Sequence to fold (335 residues):
Amino acid sequence: MGITGNTFTRRGFGAMLAAGLLVTGLGACANSDTGGDAGTGGDDKLVLGFSQVGAESGWRTANTTSVKEAAAEAGIELKFDDAQQKQENQIKAIRNFIQQKVDVIAFSPVVESGWDTVLKEAKDAGIPVILTDRAVDSADKSLYKTFLGSDFVKEGRLAGEWLVEETKSATGPVNIVELQGTTGSAPANDRKKGFGEAIAANPNLKIIASQSGDFTRAGGKAVMEQFLKANPKIDVLFAHNDDMGLGALEAITAAGKVPGKDIKIITVDAVKDGMQALADGKFNFIAECSPLLGPQLMDLAKKVHAGEEVPPRIETEETTFTQQTAKEALPTRKY
Ligand code: GYE
Fold:
């Protein structure tokens, strides 16, 4: 939010951007508009190379839409690549962007480690890099300009704190199973950490099984089936995203248990299908993670391209939902 406001401090550039925004806002005829472009056509458009993780979840789909729409609105030429959840594909895409001499590179790193070499290549080529959604663990912070995304540790902690409150009068052990996100990814590492730290407050709470479902519905279903077979008493499921929770619902129902009652379900994201499950009483709690990063990302791309200083870390604002608040929020939910 602060970022958008600051655009107005750079008068000339700001006015130019505003004009670009208006022109693209007019739709198809904008491309043939010669009014303000003095014969240069669209060639001076900022070119942003964006490497997306994949299409693994409802969150990701909403994120991709947000990025594409915001680029169009901001008059930015977007080169979009889908890495299908593979790091090597992302590295290839970033190298392609460097070769094509794009103005700015943004990407959502599928895992945290192993980026230093390619990030150095971008830096040597003089192309600024923005991390969106997920972080890298590079020690050299000069390899990227900023990281825009959520505080995943906090999301895990909020999920755990809700459970501690919910089970405060429990006398016996409360058995928890955990569906982790993609192995080695920042949201999987951090949500696990935050949740684990929060539930340490109640010694009755025990994680009896924890495995990756790769952030997908199919993964969540398959791993939950194994959990149910191996553990006769499961009281709580903590899934690192809605989609794995939704997949697990099928496994739980097929095993003759009632989701939301026999097994309490806590997830992260708050995409529409997750919110619907919560409103329907099948989920019990969701820590929100907003995928609507597009407008802030475009604003940052313009700034780093103009050589402006940007904060090294920009955190997304988010909330949490119970069954009751999900019912209230659903009708106006955007994703
Ligand atoms: O929670 C999950 C997606 O990186 C925050 O990735 C993102 C996570 C999101 O697959 O649904």
